Amino acid sequence: MSLALLKRLLLPSRPPSPPGSKSLHSSCDVGEPKTSSLNDTDSEVTLDVEAQCNGLSLGETSKRRFTPSPRMISDAIIGLSDGLTVPFALTAGLSSLGDTRLVVLGGLAELIAGAISMGLGGFIGAKSEAESYRATVTGAKEVIQTSPSQVSSIVQSVFKPFGLGVQTAEDVFQSMQDSPERMLDFIMRFHYQQVEPDTSRPFVSAATIAAGYFFGGFLPLLPYFCVKRNEVLLALWWSIGIMVVALFAFGWTKTGIVCGWSGNHNFWKCAKGALQMVVIGSMAAGAAVGLVRAINHN
Questions:
Q1: How far apart are CA 208 and CA 73, in angstroms?
Q2: d(CA 146, CA 137)
Q3: DSSP state letter for 190
């Protein structure tokens, strides 16, 4: 199997530099790699050098622009979506009792308890993910040590969707057989498709979800701080207006982050996502208000 074939499978390709321009990759090049078998030392050194060059390029890019991780965006969406609906429904329901102080106290209590609960849920979920990864690593290590034939089958199953023959997969298997660390990394990345979670992931997840929930839930309480105790209906209408705008903005932003911002097609997707958030939040608030009014009437 040629080196170029392995590079296309395991390493990301990079576009050629324009004529006359110098890039970071050109400063790392050490000459054209020789086409040889995968077992050759020169091929392995060339792959390591190219990987280091790619790493330097990515490092330079990350210094120029900060991009939040998809998991952080997901946690923020979870916290904000719950914070914009559940506390809003609660405060709207409590407003039917006619006392802004009761709405504020009940809303703050729910916010604090909800943020703590959501944060703990994110923390436990991230810890469970890390424990699952470690258990998978333990099982993979045992397979590598005790069953080479099963490992060979795993390597073949990885390369089979690419239309590569058994001999190609066997060459890869033989090249990594002397390095259990490389074999483990290959199996975890391409067979189990798992990467090692960051050690700070549980704390970041808990803080992101809790902060998103508290921030989103605090918005419907703002009007109740600004009116008199008996002007609960005025505060309710202001709260509804604020939450409609917040739900619309959140739905638009959430969809734009996931699907993109440019283009007429993405525009209508963002509009649809924003309207969905408004409808869901309105239904939750309406159900809460109706339930509290029914109980209070009885």
A1: 9
A2: 14
A3: I
